[in-house]
Amino acid sequence: MKILLIHNEYGKYCGEEAVVDKMDKMLSASGHEVRRFTRFSAEIPQMFLGKVRAFFAALFNPMAFIQLRRVLNEFQPDVVNVHNLYPFISPAILFYIRKRGIPVVMTIHNFRLMCPTGLFMRDGLPCENCLHGREWNCVRYNCEHSISKSTGYALRNWFARVTGAYLKCVDRYACITDFQRRKMILAGFPADRIEVIPNFQDKVDEPAPVRGSYVGYSGRISYEKGVDMIIEVARRHPEIPFVLAGEIRKESSDKMLQIHDPQLPNIRFAGYLQGEKLSEFYENARFTVMASRWYEGFPITILDAASFSRPTIGPNQSGFREIIRDKPQLDTSKGLEQENTGMLFRPLDVDDLEQKVVWLWTHQEVAEKMGQNAFRRLKSKYTTEAVSKQWEVLLQRMVSEKSCSHERIFRHTVRV
């Protein structure tokens, strides 16, 4: 099968780009012929009137249209897998792909089809004001902290909605969590065209039995990630060491550092890690913690931790509830439930977060058992092999449905 991946890369390499790379590798390994149609947001600062051009391109980009038409003519794909279309590709190309009769499946990485920013977040907290076609709220609350940018984001979402680009031209939506699926149904997308296929880990080897020596966090060091709450827990418990891995985002770190001084003896900022250093970080952590204020999509860091048999503490909201299995009424005297892979705390409640962190830190055997459960669940549900089977079934069904549709049209034409 020939599969065309369409994606507008962001300014910096992020989790979404990593997933697209994994998709390419996974589909190719399954015997499919894969090609990419890619544009790059990183070009905006170097362009003459780059932001202005990006705004208009998000509505319709004739150059992207011409280039895509050439790729479709040359490659003749059986299926198109769409990821991100903003700003230089535009949802307008979906109408042309539909006219060509090529089935389209769109991977839903975030909440972009329902929220102009794609995050369901305002000032670091969950926000669903734009859910039912009320994109003007993005301008009203200046969600991007720039009126021109907030207006541009709102207009492109409004334009895609009123033209029906996503509703009319996408055959299947591949959500990464059931939480995402439910939100899309609330927004008016047909439930029978929505699938749930999670993110996955492409390398899962049996981890070495190493007892961790600190509480770990991996991700952006930013306010919406709730890192200040993790720092507050560390301040209250100098006996527990913490290691925070990730890039400090200046736009939110100023707000975060006004609340808590991170210069504590039991906190080490490891910076942005990758490769062997990132593996060593997970291997030496006893467990990891995420304190996100906003919904998130599907944090790959939870799977990364699980690949080293490390459980994760996360907020009891959105997709976290699906990825982290936490049985209530945990009682160590009765043993640990088989499916427990971590713990969930009340969102935004630093006291509850503190309680969960201290409890798991002082119950090391339970943390180890949870980590083993997390690794087993990863192997059964979130490996390349497991997710590849889900994609294979979906892609084959889409091609089959399109063939049946063409056959019905042909028979009707012959009868006429």
Q: How would you explain this protein's 3D organization?
A:
- By secondary structure, the protein is of the alpha/beta class.
- Helix content is 45%, strand content 15%.
- It has helices at 15-29, 50-59, 62-75, 93-99, 136-140, 147-163, 165-169, 178-186, 227-236, 250-259, 275-284, 300-306, 320-323, 350-362, 364-381, 384-415; strands spanning 2-9, 33-40, 79-82, 104-108, 121-122, 125-126, 172-175, 194-196, 214-218, 242-245, 267-271, 285-289, 312-315, 342-345.
- The strands form 3 sheets. The chain has a 6-stranded parallel sheet with strand order 2-1-3-4-7-8, sandwiched between helices.
- α9 (227-236) crosses α14.
- The protein is globular and about 60 Å long.
- Residues 407-416 have low confidence and may be disordered.
Fold blueprint:
Layout: E1 2-9, H1 15-29, E2 33-40, H2 50-59, H3 62-75, E3 79-82, H4 93-99, E4 104-108, E5 121-122, E6 125-126, H5 136-140, H6 147-163, H7 165-169, E7 172-175, H8 178-186, E8 194-196, E9 214-218, H9 227-236, E10 242-245, H10 250-259, E11 267-271, H11 275-284, E12 285-289, H12 300-306, E13 312-315, H13 320-323, E14 342-345, H14 350-362, H15 364-381, H16 384-415
Parallel strand pairs: 1-2, 1-3, 3-4, 4-7, 7-8, 9-10, 9-12, 10-11, 12-13, 13-14
Antiparallel strand pairs: 5-6
Helix pairs in contact: 9-14
Short structural description:
By secondary structure, the chain is α/β, with parallel strands linked by helices. The protein contains 16 helices and 14 strands. Helix 9 packs across helix 14 (350-362).
